[in-house]
Amino acid sequence: MRGFAARSTVAEAWSWLDAALPSFDHLNSEDVGLWEAAGRVLARGITSPFHVPAFPRSMMDGYAVRGEETYGASPYNRLPLKVVGRCLPGKPFDRAVAAGQAVQIMTGAPLPEGTDAVVPVEQTERDGETVYVLDPVSPGKHVGQVGEDLRTGAVVLSAGRRLRPQDVGLLSSIGISRVPVIRQPVVRIVITGNELLPAGTPPEGVRIADANGPMLAALVQRDGGRPVDGGLVGDDPEAIARALDEPADVLLVSGGSSVGSEDFVPRLLAERGELAVHGIAMRPSSPAGMGRWGGRLVFLLPGNPVSCLCAYDFFAGRAIRGLGGRSKEWPYRKRQVVLARKLASTVGRVDYARVTIHDDVAEPLAIGGASILSSTTRADGFVVVPADQEGYPAGATVEAWLYD
Q: How far apart (Å, rounded) are the C-alpha atoms in residues 58 and 33?
């Protein structure tokens, strides 16, 4: 056993990672159905193949009229028009409307030929086949014009956009049934350690249940990747190597990342792949590392759950988001908070401090305690103390990142 001879800074680790990502580039695209498209990233821009709407349509329930024939109408000067029919969405009125006539119309229905405005029903009074207009409407009033929403050839959504529910609805409205999206990175999660039991298993003696596997799978899904369970692997170099050889775009290895006698993963990577970074000046997660195995990015994540979460967020998540076409930055909301008490740190090391927040006041919970996962479930978020500071005094205004 030996300690780290030197540790990379977080900035140096990010620099290597960001330089490595362009060689991987975005993954190939795939087409998915509209019902699966929300949350995915567009692989190429979408243009509208036609005008939306393609016909003038009513924006109100009421009566289609010639606008100029309603001028002068008021509750004291009711203007009568003869109702000659009805127009429903998908069921247009089948003839032209003449002077002095009106057609009852519903929202979304096509405007009948010979009319150019709609009088809302609440501005009329009906008596048999006659409707009385109580307020004037100008030509074009309450009418959705051709191409008002989208014009033919207009860029609807640009490449690289993460699709929201309303985006998917818009794509459907222009007849797009299959959406070109960037393929989700396949992320194989390998959990190492002889002491581990399968996730969700009650502890037995000195053996504990795997907490990192389910946590990492959820993080990968959040960041747009497709997690693959690589299973539990004992502290056996050849078994670990076989697990790393399985197909994936990115490899996450939790456990065995430090410099102990049973920490085989860094040595495997150094001997058979590329160990680019090992040991980072941060707390927790200092034993984290990264490199390549068979041309694929591999991340060494500490076995302690808080360290694992922190290292994933700082490094592995950044790569998975970038590969999938998303922003590499953290997917957390930021909030300005005031520290309730001093937050101590050490110059030369980045610290990841969990905090609770009440009324914009942050109470530090922990910087250490890498094995105490409940420190993250009790926390509302975290504060990052940069390497060039000795922490923050009580009352300092700092930026917190919110777990929700």
A: 31
- What total number of domains does the chain contain? 4
- Are 310 and 340 found together in one domain? no
What tokens does 337 get? 């908070």
Co-location of 135 and 156 in the same domain:
no
β pairing state of 296-301 and 250-254: parallel
Written as six digits, the tokens of 380 are 């509302």
CB 96 within 8 A of CB 112: yes
Q: For 93-104, write each residue's pLDDT tens digit.
A: 999 999 999 999
> Any residues with CB less than 8 A from the CB of 297 and at least 6 apart, and which?
20, 24, 249, 250, 251, 290, 291, 319
Among all chains, which residue has been given the structure tokens 């420190």?
Answer: 375
Q: What is the pLDDT of residues 164-203, one digit of tens each?
A: 999 999 999 999 999 999 999 999 999 998 888 888 888 8
Question: Both 177 and 40 in a single domain?
Answer: yes
Please tell me whether residues 205 and 246 are part of one structural domain. yes
Q: Give just the sign of the alpha carbon dihedral 264, 265, 270, 273.
A: positive
CATH of the domain at 152: 3.90.105.10
Buried b (16+ CB within 10 A) or exposed e, 310-324: bbbbbbbbbbbbbbb
The residue range of the domain holding 377 is 333-402
Domain termination site, one of 268, 297, 323 = 323
- Provide the residue type at 360 as one letter: D
